[in-house]
Amino acid sequence: MTERLTTTDLARDFGDGAGVFGIDLTVRPGEIHALVGLNGAGKTTLMRLILGMLHPTGGACQIDGRRLAHLGADDWARVGHLVEQPFAYPELDVRTNLRLAARLRRIPAARAASLAEHAMTELDLTRYATVSARRLSQGNRQRLGLAAATQHHPDLIVLDEPTNALDPAGVILLRTVLSRRADAGAGILVSSHHLDEVARIAHRISVVNRGRLIGTLDPDTADLERTFFALVYQHEQDRPR
Ligand SMILES: Nc1ncnc2c1ncn2[C@@H]1O[C@H](COP(=O)(O)OP(=O)(O)OP(=O)(O)O)[C@@H](O)[C@H]1O
Fold first, then answer.
1. How many domains does the chain have?
2. Domain with 104 in it: what CATH number?
3. Residue 54: helix, strand or coil by DSSP?
4. Whole-number Å distance between alpha carbons of 159 and 161
5. Neighbours of 79 (CB within 10 A)
6. pLDDT band, residue 241 (cuts 50/70/90)
7. Which of 38, 105, 138, 217 fits a disulfide with 165 by CB distance 3.0 to 4.6 angstroms?
8. Model confidence over 56-84: pLDDT tens digits?
């Protein structure tokens, strides 16, 4: 089966040692693959490369077996993402923002309307349906961004720190949405600082440090934190000065 995402020796060198280097990563259909790492490790940079928001200085990236340069609008319509700030038109209400997000992915109007209603239910946003995005709290704006990224049942979902600003109820709702999409065959790449949270949902956890993938963590490991810091510490010891 074709991987939802493959990166091969992917790199973006910002100079002075910053960036990401030699990244070989896959996300399979039905898999939730988590990236964990300290601040500045390179998670966002990697996601921006995968989404074509940043040009690589080396290596390649494929979505559903096709190189990014060969993807057209229909292919990108089958990707959902939330990296950095959730995007929404501030003057438009939640319902209209969601419908528009679906329409921008070439989904017909009637289907876009029903996807928007369903997404609001999934992320408990229905009571804000007629509230403009600029009046939402930070957490509800995040929910709106997550709804827009997942409502159209993408084949590949890329989320950077999706639990940012979410309350515990939002975290649970997000977990349910991601599990449903993965069960339906989506590949999901998600970054997080919260090891316990990631362990609840991810099938695979990759550790990023100083722009490199340095190992994996078993989500069932009893002491995830200790194993994480042991990997990072070892990488810090081993790397050339
Ligand atoms: N546009 C840029 N120009 C130069 N350096 C950059 C740029 N973007 C990121 N960096 C550097 O690349 C490294 C990785 O940053 P990145 O934002 O990818 O880390 P992160 O793992 O997402 O961090 P955090 O957990 O804090 O969000 C950092 O050293 C950062 O300063």
1. 1
2. 3.40.50.300
3. coil
4. 6
5. 23
6. low
7. 138
8. 999 999 999 999 999 999 999 999 999 98
Question: Which residues span the domain enclosing 194?
Answer: 5-238
Quick one: tokens of 189? 């790449």
- Does the C-beta of 44 come closer than 6 Å to ligand 1? yes
pTM of the model: 0.96
How far away, in angstroms, is 93 Cα from ligand 1 center?
32
- CA atoms of 220 and 217, how far apart (whole Å): 8
CA gap 188, 34 in Å, rounded: 8
- Using one digit for the tens of pLDDT, what is the confidence trace for 154-200? 999 999 999 999 999 999 999 999 999 999 999 999 999 889 889 99
Query: How many Cβ atoms sit within 10 Å of the Cβ of residue 167?
Result: 14
Long-range contacts of 176-182 (CB under 8 A, 24+ apart): 176/122, 177/122, 177/123, 177/146, 177/150, 178/32, 178/150, 179/32, 181/150, 181/153, 181/154, 181/157, 182/30, 182/31, 182/32
- Residues in a beta bridge with 15: 18
Q: Which of 16, 23, 45 to mutate to test the pocket of ligand 1 (most atoms within 8 A of CB)?
A: 45
